[in-house]
Structures are given as C-alpha cells and as structure tokens.
Amino acid sequence: MNQFGRLLRLSIFGESHGPAVGVTLDGLPAGLALPEEDFIADLERRKGGQQKGTTPRQEEDRPQFLSGLFNGKTTGAPLTMIFPNSNTRSADYEKIRAFPRPGHADLVAAQKFGGHEDYRGGGHFSGRLTVCLVAAGVIAKKLLRGIAVEARILEIGGEPDIDKGLQRAIDAKDSVGGIVECRVQGLPPGAGGPFFDSVESLLAHAAFSIPAIKGIEFGAGFAAARMFGLEHNDAILNAEGQTRTNHAGGVTGGISTGNELVFRVAVKPTSSTPKEQTSWNRETGSVEAFSVKGRHDLCIALRVPPVLEAVTALVLADLLLQEQKIPNIIS
Amino acid sequence: MNQFGRLLRLSIFGESHGPAVGVTLDGLPAGLALPEEDFIADLERRKGGQQKGTTPRQEEDRPQFLSGLFNGKTTGAPLTMIFPNSNTRSADYEKIRAFPRPGHADLVAAQKFGGHEDYRGGGHFSGRLTVCLVAAGVIAKKLLRGIAVEARILEIGGEPDIDKGLQRAIDAKDSVGGIVECRVQGLPPGAGGPFFDSVESLLAHAAFSIPAIKGIEFGAGFAAARMFGLEHNDAILNAEGQTRTNHAGGVTGGISTGNELVFRVAVKPTSSTPKEQTSWNRETGSVEAFSVKGRHDLCIALRVPPVLEAVTALVLADLLLQEQKIPNIIS
Amino acid sequence: MNQFGRLLRLSIFGESHGPAVGVTLDGLPAGLALPEEDFIADLERRKGGQQKGTTPRQEEDRPQFLSGLFNGKTTGAPLTMIFPNSNTRSADYEKIRAFPRPGHADLVAAQKFGGHEDYRGGGHFSGRLTVCLVAAGVIAKKLLRGIAVEARILEIGGEPDIDKGLQRAIDAKDSVGGIVECRVQGLPPGAGGPFFDSVESLLAHAAFSIPAIKGIEFGAGFAAARMFGLEHNDAILNAEGQTRTNHAGGVTGGISTGNELVFRVAVKPTSSTPKEQTSWNRETGSVEAFSVKGRHDLCIALRVPPVLEAVTALVLADLLLQEQKIPNIIS
Amino acid sequence: MNQFGRLLRLSIFGESHGPAVGVTLDGLPAGLALPEEDFIADLERRKGGQQKGTTPRQEEDRPQFLSGLFNGKTTGAPLTMIFPNSNTRSADYEKIRAFPRPGHADLVAAQKFGGHEDYRGGGHFSGRLTVCLVAAGVIAKKLLRGIAVEARILEIGGEPDIDKGLQRAIDAKDSVGGIVECRVQGLPPGAGGPFFDSVESLLAHAAFSIPAIKGIEFGAGFAAARMFGLEHNDAILNAEGQTRTNHAGGVTGGISTGNELVFRVAVKPTSSTPKEQTSWNRETGSVEAFSVKGRHDLCIALRVPPVLEAVTALVLADLLLQEQKIPNIIS
C-alpha cells in the first residue's frame, strides 16, 4: 500500500517514466497558506545536478495543484500535487532490460507483478517519487509551528568530510553510501505512545519507505547496546522532562520527552554503480557481466536529507494532530 | 494505538499490575490447531528467572483463551488470550513514586495522560506485555509453514561471549544492553512493496514496538553506508532471485527477494539499574539521588529474541496472507 | 474484521457459549470516571427477560475490567471489559445442528470457515456480543457531554402500540420485527465529512453491525424519494445553521448541521421463531421440517434501542475527537 | 477522510471548479487490461444531458491515466485517473453566494473549514466527484469475473413510470427524488463477516458516500419489520445455501449467501430546485427568498445507478480479494 498516516493521510502514485508522479494529502487543516515559492528550497535540495555526485537529470519540479487549494490556502479537502515527468529517456533503460539490476527492484517487481510492472527507470520504485514526499513534507513542516526539523549528512563513504568521501567514489569509479542524521527541536512532550504508535515505530516505518535506507537508530542507538545502564540513562532535571544527557534521542516509552529528537539513518551506496557488474541474464539464462548506463547518482545519500525531513515532519504532524496540538483550522 | 496489521490484526491490552494482560488476533485463518504445549517453549524463553541476568518475577504465563478457539482449533473469529497477573508486588513501586525513573515512561506517561496513568510497575508500558506478543507470535509462526524465524543474541555488553558480558554487568553492579539478530529462512519472494508497505518499514515498525529497542538494520545495515556500490550489490544468480552475497538482507525495493531475511536490533541496557542514580523528585522539586528497588533484569536483551521472532512472524504472516500464500482455511 | 473507529478504536471478541465475550476500546481519553453503576441502566435495557417478548436467558452482565482502568478512571491505555458467559445450555443447540437455521449464519459460517466455526448458540455471530457494544457505548456517551443520544421503538410487528404488536406474535406463535428510531440532541455542527467519512456512512456502517438490522434511513429517508425539492429542503434560519424543518435528519453533505440527528432502522423478526420451519438437513441431504428449540426473543427489536444508542455514541465520539471537541484528558 | 477499502484502497480528490477531479486505486491486481473504451458506457450513463431531467453540463469525461498503467494493463502500482474540469461557469455560483443553499453543504462546509472551503459549484462536495467513483467502479467490475452488478431505477417522484415522475417535476417546476435498486448475481458465498465487516455495513458505508442518498435497505428491508419470522425466513434448499425466498437480500450474518444480493437506496430530490426558496442571507443576516441559478438536475436519482454499481463493485472486489477469490495477478 502506498498510503500512510492516521489523521494526516498521505497517498503517493506515479512512475519514473509515466506522465507524472503525485501525492494526495488528506486530513490537512484548512486555511494553511501554500505559496509556491515555499516549496522551492526543499525541492531544490532534493534535486540532482547541483552537487558533485548527484544525477544530471533535471526536472522542473514545481508542484501542480490539482485539488485542495483555493485562494492560495488549503481548504480542508484532499490536496493533490503532481509533478509531470518531462525529462525521461526511456531508451537508456530498454537496452539493459535483459539484466535485472542488482540492488534494484527489477527482478522482485517482475516476480511480484507477473511481469506487468513498468520497468522503465525503476517505474514506481524510482527515487523520483521522493519528490512527492518532499513536497508533502513542506506542507507538514508548516503545520509544525515552532518546531525545527533538520537533517544533515554525517558522513559519505565513511568520511565526515563529504568532498573526500565523494572523491573516493570518483577515484574508484564506483558509488558510495552515507549516514544522515535528523534532529527536531521544539517537539513538545507527549507525542506517540507505547507499542505500535511509538515515535520510533512510526518514524522508522516512514524512513524505511525512502529507497536505499537500510538502518535507523535513535539517540545513542547501536552504541547503547554497549553502554551500562547508568551511563545510558538520561537523568531527569525538572517537571518538563528536560534531561542532563539525551541518549534516548528524545523518545522514552515511545513518547516524545520534549528533549531534542535525534536519529540517524544508513543509506546504502547507489546500486547503479558506473562499474561493470554481474547479474543473471534473462535472455541467455546465464550470469554475465554488464554495465548500468543511464544517469545516476554517485551517492544517493546526498539527496536524502530533505526526504528524511519530509517524512519526519509528516509523522510528527500526524501525531500532533492526534494530540490536538495542531488545530483543524489555521488562522 | 495498540493495534497493528492489515489482514492479521493484533490488539494488545493490559498493565503490569492490573488483573491481566492480553491480546486479540483478528483475521486468523480458521482450522489452525493450537495445543497449549506449543506455546510453552517461546513463553519460557521470554520468561525471566532461568538465566543469570533476568528478573526473578515468575508468572505462570500460559494463555487463557477467551474466544476464537473451538475443539482446539481457530474458528476464524477473533482469538483473545489473556495472561492473568498473579505475582505482583505493587508496594515496591509505590515507595519510589516520587522519582520518575530515567529511561522509563514514568514522566512522559504522567504528562501525556494527565496523571491518570497506572504507574505501578510501568503500567501499560511494562515489558510484561511482551508475553502477549510472544503468544501471538507462536500462532503466526504456525501460519508460516516451511519458514523458520530465528533470533539469537549476537552480543551482550559489547561481548560476543554472553556470560562475559553479563559478568561485566554484575561486576559493575549495573545493567547492560545487547544486540539481537533475526534470520528468516524460506520466505518466498514477493512479500511487501515499495514505500510504506516495505518489509523494512513494517518490520521496523513492529520491532520498535518492543520496549528498549533503539536501532534496527537490515543486511549490511549501517556498514552499507561505508561500502562501495559494487561491493554492496548482491549479484543475481538465477530466475528465482538467488544472490551471491546477501548485503541487502533479503529485501530489495521493499520486497522480499527469497534470500535469507536478516536484520539486527540494538537493545539498550535495562533502565532499572541496581546503581544509585539521580532524577528530579516530584515531591521536593529538586534533583536527588535515588535507587530503583523491585525486580529487574540485568540485561533485558536476553529476553528479546522470542519477542523479536514473534513480531517478525506476525508481520510476515500478514504480508503472506495479502500475497494469498497463506490460505484462509487451514486443513 | 471486528474492529471499528479511527481515533476511538473498538475491538470485540467472544462467542455465545465460550468463556466470555469482551471488548477493547483504544484511544479513550484519560481521566474519565467509570463507576460500575453507570453501566447498569443500559445493560439492563439490553438484557432479555424483563419484557414480554425477550429471551429468559439471564447473564449477570456486569463488566469485568481487565485493563485501562485505575483508581476508577480511564488511564489512556486500552480498556478491556469482559462479560463471562455463565448461563449457557449448549445441549439445546447440539440437538438441532443437522439443520442450518434459516435467517441465522449457521450455513454461511460453515462455508466461510470450513466447518471450524463455533456453532453453539450462533457462536461469534450471536446477539450476545451486543452486550460489548452497549458497555462500550456507555463509555462513549460519557464523552458526549451535553449531547443526548436516545433510541426508542417506533413500532413492533407493524403496530405503534408495542403490546399489540407483541400480542400479534404471541397469537401467531411466531416472531415479529420492528422499527427503532434514534435521535441525538446537542450534536454540534461540523462532525463528519463528504464521501467516506459522512455521518451517514459511519452510522450506517455501525448500525448494520448490529445483528438483524436490514435498513436505515436518515431524516425523511425513503419518504424523501417521494417529495419535491422545495418540500424536502430545510430552510436555513441563521448563522448557526438552524433549519425550519429537518428532513435532512441533521446531516447535510455528510456533515452534522447542528440540528437534531434523526435516523431509523428496520429490525427483522427474530429468525428463531417458535414455529416449525423447513431447511436443508445436513445429515439426510433433503429439505425437512424442524423446530428451533432453545431460548429466543419473540421480538429482537425490543433489545435494539440501547445497542443502537451505543454504536451511535461510539461513532459520534470518534468524530468529535477528530474535531478536537472532546479533549484527550478529561478533568 | 476521502479513502475507503482494505486491500483495494480508493482515494478521491478534486473540486467541481478546480483543475480536475481524480481518484487513486491502490491494491489493484497487476495485469488487468483497461482499454479506454471500456469506461465509456458507465461514464456516459452517469453524465448529464442525455436524459430529460439531467443537467446540460457536458464534460468530456474520459479518464486520463497518470500512473499505474503500462502497455494498457495495470502494473500493481497505484493507478491514478484524473478528469479535468473544462466546462465550468463559476460566475453562476458567485452571484448567489450570499445564500447558503438549503440541502447543500454550503453552510456546514463554511462552519467546518472556517470559510476556507472552495465554494464554487459545491467544491469538493460536488456530485462531479462521482465520475471518479464510476471510473473506479469500471475497474472493480472487471475484477468481478462472472459477477453481474446492475442497478436500475425503481421509481421517480413516487412513480414507477419514470417519464411520469419527471413530468410531475416539470409540471411543478420543482425537482423530485427516486429509489434505485441494485442487484448482484453470481456473488459467491462467504464474502463479508459479522459486525463491522458485514456486507451490509460496507455497502451502506459506500452507498452513503454518494451525495443525496438518505436511506438503504437490504432484501425485504423496512418491510421486514412488519413480517412474521416464518414469513421472513428464507428456507435453505441445499448445501450451496440456495434459498426458496430471498428476503435477506443475499446476506445473512453479514456474509454473502450465494443468493442474489439485493438492496435499494432512497435518493432525495435535487436540492437545487428551480423554485424560489428561502434561506438565511449571510450579508443581510435575515431570512429571504432567493433562486438557485446554474445548471442542475431535475432528478439526481437518474444518475445514481452507475455510481451505485461502482461503489458496490468496489466493496465486493475488496471483499473477494480478502477471500482470495480474486488473484493478485490477472492472466
């Protein structure tokens, strides 16, 4: 299913080489102003082409509103944005169809959908759909008044110096992965709950819906597994729940503590590496060497921060609507 | 919300010191035999008291079936199991109520629920509720014919030798965390989907509903962030999708590949350490030293494997029902 | 699925002759006082035995709280109530098992669940489960402060004089149906929405979950189909939306108007009529005459009003939580 | 919320005078051929203009596929169709904005959404959105192989002779309502369940999402309330569940019996009657006479049959997917 959320319901659709990708957001409060320019910053951050290491494919990437907007503000009805696909070169992909690309969904999609999937450019599995998440996230961030959601790259190719990490990829004629950290300041205590509505459960659910993410950890995360209890525990300082340290990453018992929310995700190296690789050839039935042509990112992690911010903002906005901390009408 | 699943719907309830904890499973196929003895092994694995490092609290921990079972088999109606709480010593907890325990939900629960929460022994936030997950998991495993779900401890207190890790805790008079790995063999390709129904999204959602888990990674996980693309890619060997390596951990594009499913979780050290710690005192309003009395685990990670297996089995059974690979009537 | 609701989630379980029937309510605000005596009135209204025409089966029918209640108030955790089944005479049903009873689910349940269903007394299909709905409704009504939900019988066996209608059944040695009307006063405007969250959609969904209901109409209902537009339209009198007439029954565009909510349901005659009837005999394979023994209602409609009020209150409480008109903490 | 369904998820969006209305269907099996011509018949049936009594507004009403279709077949990814709004005359509506139209959502929408709603032509509340339901229904019908879903008008303005009923409206210079019946042949036994997933609950939920519907009844429906039990009971004839009569309308215990599914809905008269009516004037604050200009149907019930078929097919397809009676891949 391509839907997520309880009160703020997200629904995404589209394929890399179809007419458009798009997103419907249902449950949005009415009265929220959505000037187009407010979408530019995050959409540009997500776009390939600016940074060394990201793909040269350039879509205009401005949302076209099909519904839910009137006089520049949300109406309370479902808001649908689409992003037409204008710059697609399907031929690149046709040539290499014989080889299901390792790391991509080519083969599993064919198995699951009986060969009916749109395989061009990854089809519905394409990272192209993250433009929908980012645009929806811009709206969600607006609902989070006084709350700052910021993701940044911690390391690329194992290097905290990003340029160095990318250079490793360039030198090796290969791709690299990276680690991205997200921090949220100003989140009030009380969002989430124990068990299936824990902040960690919902954020992890949303984060793993971003292609290429293979791990997530909150606060001290995996390092916590090697700490003593006293070392890990965050001493509580006052009635507001402020703590001396923040090894919990801002979530205890599945509920936000009011301290900074901190988590990190691991992004695998781009699967479409420039290097020659091997895969099973559908046509010959044997395992052979091949190369992925087409336009690709040296390091997909570079594009993850605005996407991670987006899904984080969507999850938190949904939780704060449930907490009645975001009103149904914005004024 | 304390519910999870699409076709196989789980709903849990109960508090550590209330009359009982329990679980309702809706959407179960009819005709599945559930002899009581089949629950024993996993429930015993979860129970404290056998192992050095786990709490001496001993509940009988056998499911009482309130509904959904007839002539020893599931009926297709919701199946409810309860576990009465017989062995509770509430007084232990009353004494220390002045101090919201660091690492526990005491303070956030009070904030969120306006002081109405059942605070005895962690109330609804208690690890006691994982008995419900384990029992539900026993049933889910039965639906996964030919599929083996097995979790094991990789390290305790940073040590692959578990006894050594526990000894570190005992020596330090403190608690320790650990890392647990889950592997699933025999999972067919095609379960899950891209985005919000990705196998990773759903398993992570479920795993983070287990108290004390602070990180999860699939396949190479965080290490993938430091690999080159060619190094990380799993070369496809045949039409079945078998791969030479399994850095993806059995999931590509959110969909199971038919290779072994592999993921690891980080478990924080037990928050209720025997050591003296500090917290804000509700009564005096100042930060003071205190000790957590009561019965507690030296290392909660020891009890995680059957719980992790359980939620994994529940997620996979739900996905395979959706794939029509588990029939609605078992014969 | 045996679950309903978005923020206020209801989950029911149990069989007529199993250990107990029960209900879990998740998403309840914390701090709501639930003295046992507040359940008595509605539970007694639902119980058979008092009125001419209802079954002599007498259960104690007082909720046993398994979770979610602490110091007499809701905690914010899932609240589970069970009603043990003490007064069951299964033998009555065994005798007539050869004949799937017309009007009952005997045969469809056997088909759907492959013969694994609990067939005793209708099993999970039994009207016995409405005790769970009524108890949950008592809680929902408490959330609806200043709102009165009242259902009453309009006619029995076609007679507005109820005694007369029952006498028709007694004279005919048969069962009769009836019509029940529900009115809600004090419902604010703004609950619900167009399309799938319309007040009519949700109330109809809930009402048809009550066994034996075969029709529902809002306001003028079926009579509206024979009115002219001008005759049917409710002239609006002021900014609050008060209307001169109320043919819409308090809902326009799927949203509550602030006028009285009015709807009616049709209840079929009890299927277990004392009269001899015919059905296919599983054992002989031929159609034969048989009689339903056991305890049954002459007119099940008599017991519907508190059940209809209950599901109505549950739907409205959920909608008003979404409208942020019921707080998450009751004080 | 503008979403419906469990495995087959429908999400609708758009406003009468916005750029487009549209629908996303998620959970569709892959491999289903969708030639455009297969949409024409039902879309034309729904369109105004052909019949005496329906509005002259003419949209092209052919689906534009944004996603989910490849080589003419469904791919398993979400399928989005839009219907651009080309023929809108907003000025008609601006003039009469002072008067919230009785029977329409004008006032409740303004109350609920704080005046931010798109009020042009009813905005998101418009019957225009039923084109989305009909198009989705065309697809759902294709999934229901061997099952025929047919709705027809039983009466208009109280007259079984439809022309006569419309003439009554024309003579009275007013609008009229009507009754529509839906019959489904070939539905296998076993769809649905007791309580909240009853066939009646789901169909009623869906039917009331169609604007102007104010009542629904299954089988004998309201007439059942005036029957004796023996008269109403449908004698079972064989192991397949075939019955002598069909007062139940094909549903017993919430589950399809395999007999014909039969239900009727009541459609209120078009609220936008040509006659002068009265309403509160927002600008003057007093109740005054006014006339609704614009294009409107004399009898909206005429357009209901394909819409009712559509939502019926969607509900049944979802249930049969759950029953594993529709495969995930169509071949």
From TrEMBL, chains A, B, C, D:
<comment type="function">
    <text>This reaction introduces a second double bond into the aromatic ring system.</text>
</comment>
<keyword id="KW-0028">Amino-acid biosynthesis</keyword>
<keyword id="KW-0288">FMN</keyword>
<keyword id="KW-0456">Lyase</keyword>
<feature type="binding site">
    <location>
        <position position="295"/>
    </location>
    <ligand>
        <name>FMN</name>
    </ligand>
</feature>
<dbReference type="InterPro" id="IPR000453">
    <property type="entry name" value="Chorismate_synth"/>
</dbReference>
<feature type="binding site">
    <location>
        <begin position="268"/>
        <end position="272"/>
    </location>
    <ligand>
        <name>FMN</name>
    </ligand>
</feature>
<keyword id="KW-0285">Flavoprotein</keyword>
<feature type="binding site">
    <location>
        <position position="46"/>
    </location>
    <ligand>
        <name>NADP(+)</name>
    </ligand>
</feature>
<dbReference type="Pfam" id="PF01264">
    <property type="entry name" value="Chorismate_synt"/>
</dbReference>
<feature type="binding site">
    <location>
        <position position="253"/>
    </location>
    <ligand>
        <name>FMN</name>
    </ligand>
</feature>
<keyword id="KW-0274">FAD</keyword>
<comment type="subunit">
    <text>Homotetramer.</text>
</comment>
<keyword id="KW-0521">NADP</keyword>
<protein>
    <recommendedName>
        <fullName>Chorismate synthase</fullName>
        <ecNumber>4.2.3.5</ecNumber>
    </recommendedName>
</protein>
<keyword id="KW-0057">Aromatic amino acid biosynthesis</keyword>
<feature type="binding site">
    <location>
        <position position="52"/>
    </location>
    <ligand>
        <name>NADP(+)</name>
    </ligand>
</feature>
<comment type="similarity">
    <text>Belongs to the chorismate synthase family.</text>
</comment>
<dbReference type="InterPro" id="IPR035904">
    <property type="entry name" value="Chorismate_synth_AroC_sf"/>
</dbReference>
<feature type="binding site">
    <location>
        <begin position="124"/>
        <end position="126"/>
    </location>
    <ligand>
        <name>FMN</name>
    </ligand>
</feature>
<comment type="pathway">
    <text>Metabolic intermediate biosynthesis; chorismate biosynthesis; chorismate from D-erythrose 4-phosphate and phosphoenolpyruvate: step 7/7.</text>
</comment>
<dbReference type="InterPro" id="IPR020541">
    <property type="entry name" value="Chorismate_synthase_CS"/>
</dbReference>
